[in-house]
Amino acid sequence: MRHLLAVTVGRLPPIDARLPRPSVMGVVNVTPDSFSDGGVNLRTEDAVANARRMIDEGAAIVDVGGESTRPGSGPLSIEEELARVLPVLEEIGQELPVSIDTAKAEVARRAIALGAELVNDVTALRGDPRMAEVVAGAGLYVCLMHMLGKPRTMQLDPRYDDVVDDVKAFLEERLRFAVEAGIAEDRICLDPGIGFGKTIEHNFELIRRLDELTALGRPLVVGFSRKSSLGKILGDPDAKTGPLPASIAAAVAAYERGATILRVHDVREHVEALTAARAVVG
Ligand code: 9MG
Prior knowledge:
Layout: H1 2-9, H2 15-18, E1 23-29, H3 44-56, E2 61-65, H4 78-92, E3 98-101, H5 105-113, E4 118-121, H6 131-138, E5 141-145, H7 163-180, E6 188-191, H8 200-208, H9 210-214, E7 221-222, H10 228-233, H11 244-256, E8 261-264, H12 267-281
Parallel strand pairs: 1-2, 1-8, 2-3, 3-4, 4-5, 5-6, 7-8
The structure holds 9-methylguanine (9MG).
């Protein structure tokens, strides 16, 4: 009931008040084919149980998505995406803090009606011309992520003049677009899109120079959890995923360089690591 009341009765607080630094976003992929957790949430009861466990373990929000965005994946129909996520949102949308991971306005609209408070759009409002209007109309939070190309081809030789400058210019432009479309700036967070059209070196350079992106003045989301660059630097050139200790190290490094929201699969371990990192920072 908390989310519905916030949406219909009053404004949500600014996103940095609702999700202070560091906050953990737990990943609930309702997909058969994600590299890191494909299939584990396909049954609604499993997705619901995992979402509840993540919140119990300290996640500030759970990110529910039905369309895989792993490298090489193709698009999914609206009907199929709705069929995957709606049963889960019907169970938890009013009970838990939920983000909907979608680039489709209709999926976002239906998820918001069921209680989602954040739209995680990996296309940064470029995938569906109606998405900005849906988010602006609901007055909810949105995450605008950088991606070079499309999931099917994005890892085929991605190139930048300077990856940080290019990602920063993109995020700045999408932030302006969102505000001009009527989304309040204090509702928006930004994400460099680790692994979305980036080499291993691009990914690590983005974290190394994250302060250049925090200069945009919006909270940053970073999702390095289980991504293949982590497995590759550990010596497996064909790695499709990365292990937990490397995921935690990357999340802590990102937090120390200014990330606010860490998007992760293993909530308890990341919450513990970030709690210790935060105690060090003071
Ligand atoms: C859906 N999804 C997969 N990886 C992601 C990341 O790094 N950030 C965001 N915002 N979404 C992601």
